[in-house]
Amino acid sequence: MQDLALPLAQAVLVALQACWLTLGVWDNMRHPRINRDDIARVLELKALEGHPDLLAALGHRRVTNPRSVQALFVAVIVIEAAVSVALWIGALGMLGALAGWLDAGGARALAILGVLGFTAIWAAFLIGGQWFYYWYGAFGQDTHFRLLAWGLLTLLILAA
């Protein structure tokens, strides 16, 4: 029984990330204005509006073209959708390995790649957020840190 507990826990953790990200993709597709408008605020350096000296120094980073904002938003959805699929494949593969239908090492490798994608999304948001100084406002940085930590912890558990 103990031999099944860790692989089952690993599969469930990957599936939970797949669920979370799939819901995010679904919401972005059904209600695009919510996150697209947040992305636009970050790209426009809205967090710096109360800091004219910083805005003067960093204003050249602003992105205000609606087509650019929309293109970035669509790219985010496509990447998140691809990672969602990878997470589902990894989770189901690990369950298939538990049932003896698939190679456990290969299934775990697929799960690790999916979780790496999940983790990379949030790292990319943090890096982009650093460029656009979104940490000066409340534009989701705390959530992105937590999601990054979730991904990193899941990677560690998958490595066990």
Q: Explain this structure to me?
A:
By secondary structure, the protein is mainly alpha-helical. The protein is 80% helix and 0% strand. It has helices spanning 2-30, 32-43, 52-58, 66-98, 104-131, 141-159. α1 (2-30) runs antiparallel to α4, α2 packs across α4 and α5 packs antiparallel against α6. It is elongated. The mean pLDDT is 94.
Instruction: Summarize the amount of helix as a percent range.
Output: over 70%
The helix/strand series, from N terminus to C terminus, equals HHHHHH
Strand content: under 5%
Structural class designation: mainly alpha
Largest sheet: none
Brief overview, please?
The chain has 160 residues and is an all-alpha fold. It has helices at residues 2-30, 32-43, 52-58, 66-98, 104-131, 141-159.
Helices and strands in order:
Elements: H1 2-30, H2 32-43, H3 52-58, H4 66-98, H5 104-131, H6 141-159
Helix pairs in contact: 1-2, 1-4, 1-5, 1-6, 2-4, 4-5, 5-6
What descriptors fit this protein?
160 residues; mainly alpha; elongated
